[in-house]
Design brief:
There is one protein chain. The protein is built from 11 helices and 12 strands. The protein has 342 residues and is an alpha/beta fold. The strands form 2 sheets. A 10-stranded mixed sheet has the order 2-1-3-12-11-4-5-10-8-9, with helices on both faces. A two-stranded antiparallel ribbon has the order 6-7. Helix 6 links the parallel strand 8 and strand 9. Helix 1 crosses helix 9. The two termini are 20 Å apart.
């Protein structure tokens, strides 16, 4: 199995090495074939470049988007299907996601029920199609399209059928009353079973749905990236399901040039201020390993196994400074590997 590796600056190099070491160790123990395909470039992060002049930042963004495009195209052509990426500059990331027609999926178990959030990364505010930076004004434009909505709904429904129990509810959450109701009409034509909500209504209904309806159906929640970005953080706090420094998610690319590629990423940022000190929290990276092994290496139940090992380490106090501990990154990694049973 080929696994792509993309490093950002900051703690990216350290976390990429953690990922490679852990998945290589586990694959060796369970006798799974593994081949790394590594991007030769280190991509910029916000912390590295935020003080640069706008024209310098834009040039860096353009170069990094080209690097991402070439790397993922070549990875797919060589038969690769999956990759791990550390944090990079969000502007480059969003532009590439727009180009590659990306969606982000987050599956949240809530007792016997499950919530699948699908974030539309291919259109909307985060994915502007033109940008002009003046001295006093920033002008940008973006777009929505019926074709992209069709792509989004087709993927979302197929993915939901593989991870949710049927029948499940479908909620679509955008500011759909804007643009002469065109978005609403497209959504209704492309996804007839969906209930359409404004973001403020959906947040309230979502909390009530899972707080009070204990026998409720599983839920597919399709939303714009802007809404999903904020809502994910709110859900982490409201549901008590973890801290962003310990969580991961995955992006799936739907453009024909990249179709079939899945990218696992840490949810946290690049933590440039602690780079090269050996104290970066590895839990999100370890969860990427667990999810990838289950999804692509046919290791059934390995996601839960990894989560349980991380919980054990937390209860033992083997955590990094950001979680109140004194352990180094390598101490945490070795502790988790010792807990895992094969």
């Amino acid at each position: 199995m080929k696994v792509g590796i993309i490093r950002g600056a900051g703690t990216g190099a350290e976390l990429a090495e953690v990922f490679k070491y852990v998945i290589q160790t586990i694959c060796s123990r369970i006798r799974k074939n593994l081949e790394f395909v590594e991007c030769s470039n280190t991509l910029a992060t916000y912390g590295q470049s935020h003080l640069d002049a706008p024209e310098v930042i834009e040039a860096t963004v353009a170069a990094d988007v080209e690097i991402l495009s070439d790397f993922y195209r070549d990875l797919r052509r060589s038969g690769g299907k999956v990759s791990f990426r550390t944090a990079i500059n969000a502007e480059a990331l969003y532009l590439f996601r727009q180009h590659a027609k990306a969606v982000k999926t987050v599956l949240i178990p809530l007792g016997v029920k499950k919530l699948l959030i699908v974030r539309d990364e291919m259109q909307g505010y985060y994915s502007n199609t033109s940008l002009n930076i003046g001295e006093d004004t920033v002008r940008f434009s973006g777009q929505f399209s019926k074709e992209d909505f069709s792509r989004l709904f087709k993927f979302s429904l197929q993915n939901a059928k593989s991870v949710l129990s049927e029948p499940f509810q479908v909620w679509v959450v955008y500011k759909h009353h804007l643009f002469a109701n065109v978005l609403e009409n497209w959504c209704r034509s492309k996804c007839p079973p969906a209930k359409l909500y404004q973001p403020n209504d959906a947040t309230e209904k979502l909390f009530r749905y899972f707080d009070t309806a204990h026998d409720a159906d599983d839920l597919l929640f399709i939303t714009g990236n802007e809404v999903g970005d904020i809502l994910h953080e709110v859900l982490l706090f409201h549901l008590g399901i973890g801290e962003r420094s310990c969580l991961c998610c995955k992006n799936i690319y739907l453009h024909p040039n990249y179709a079939g590629l899945t990218e696992y990423q840490t949810v946290h940022g690049s933590a440039d201020d602690i780079a090269d000190r050996g104290i970066v929290n590895p839990f999100a990276t370890l969860r990427c390993v667990g999810d990838m092994l289950e999804d692509f290496f046919f290791c059934d139940g390995f996601s839960k196994t990894m989560v349980a090992a991380i919980k054990n380490a937390t209860e033992d106090g083997i955590v990094t400074q950001d979680m109140g501990g004194k352990s180094s990154t390598s101490d945490v990694v070795e502790h988790v590997l010792n807990i895992l049973q094969f």
